[in-house]
Design goal:
By secondary structure, this protein is mainly alpha-helical. Helices cover 54% and strands 1% of the residues. A hairpin with a 5-residue loop joins strand 1 and strand 2. Pfam families: Cytochrom_C, Cytochrome_CBB3.
Length: 270
Amino acid sequence: MTKTNTPKPARARKSGRRSPLASVALIAIGLLFTGGAYALFSTSTASAQTDASSQQTIGEGKKLFASNCATCHGLSAAGTGSGPSLIGVGAASVDFQVGTGRMPMQMDGPQAEKKAVVFTEEQIASLAAYVASLAPGPAVPDARYLDAQGDSANGAELFRINCAMCHNVAGAGGALTQGKFAPALDGVSAQHIYEAMITGPQSMPVFNDMNISPESKRDIITYLKYLENNPSPGGYALGSLGPVSEGLFLWIFGLGAIVGLTVWITAKSN
């Protein structure tokens, strides 16, 4: 009897379907690519918009400068016989001088005095941006140093060492030479106090970050705002001018009272 060899069934072919893990990987790669492309496009667009906005602000500042400041400082801000060069003074100097009304000057004098502000905040920002674009200089300070939440005790010590000889220990101001003066600091904004320290307006020296750190400047502002918000514990402060006003008060009123009492006693005895 002949034996018939039955052929073995062929191995089933592998299915043509992808592994679930491969599908997940493809979806993840697609999402990553799409998200990255969108982020890159958005960043580029935002950067272009920011650059355009900055250029527009600088352009507005240049127009304002030409019509209001160039007479004294020159069209290129390089200075003239009537005004100094503004190359390198930075945005902080412009914000202080224009933001306190010292510029434009009302009249020639020993120093520019504080007065009503001529420009709006937007115009001041445009002027500051234009001057800052001419050369590197001190920038407008970061808001974290202006919150008056520092160490007031350290600020008081730093103020006595560096500032009190001109501004008085209580920030009441004082006279200088040649008709100049150190202004009172009561009511001055924290930003303008900081900007004055880093730009040195009028007769004031510059206190850069090597002299007084930003944190120490914050402490000084904290001390000044503490004085502003807390009245004199001894009663009427007489301008916080110390022995000058106190001595004058004693001479006029104290000595006057003694003389008046003496005259009254003498008249009664007669």
